[in-house]
Amino acid sequence: MKAERGKPERADNDIVTPAPAAKLKGVSRTAIYNALSDGRLSGVCILGRIGIARGDLKAWQPQARVGRPAGRPMTEKQKSTIATAQKKRWASRKADTPKADKSS
């Protein structure tokens, strides 16, 4: 790799911090920190700061998002049942709240 004038040559052993690493991989800093703590990504601590070798970052593939799976879409009947229950709940709450007396 040839360096341009005024710009240092980047090697695979360059160290990057989690914020630029996240930007390079298109993930959040939290995803980088999680990968480091899980051992899926290796890093070093230099003077109290975390560093990740650029070569390790290139080799690391982010995992697919792990979370609650998307369920089946609700049917119109299910949506109307929920809407009716919500309307009843709000009507009962409205009836339970005391009204301010404006006769003074």
How does this model look, in words?
The chain has 104 residues and is mostly helical. The chain has a domain at 15-59. The chain contains 4 helices and 3 strands, in the order E-H-H-E-E-H-H. The chain has helices spanning 18-25, 29-38, 54-59, 76-96; strands spanning 15-16, 44-46, 49-53. The chain has a 3-stranded antiparallel β-sheet with strand order 1-3-2. Helix 1 crosses helix 2. The mean pLDDT is 82.
What's the quick description here?
By secondary structure, the chain is mostly helical. Helix content is 43%, strand content 10%.
- DSSP strand count: 3
What's the main sheet like? Answer: 3 strands, antiparallel
Please give the count of helices. Answer: 4
Distance between the termini: 85 Å
- Which series of helices and strands comes N to C? EHHEEHH
Features:
104 residues, elongated, single chain, 43% helix, three-stranded antiparallel β-sheet, mainly alpha
Topology:
Elements: E1 15-16, H1 18-25, H2 29-38, E2 44-46, E3 49-53, H3 54-59, H4 76-96
Antiparallel strand pairs: 1-3, 2-3
Helix pairs in contact: 1-2
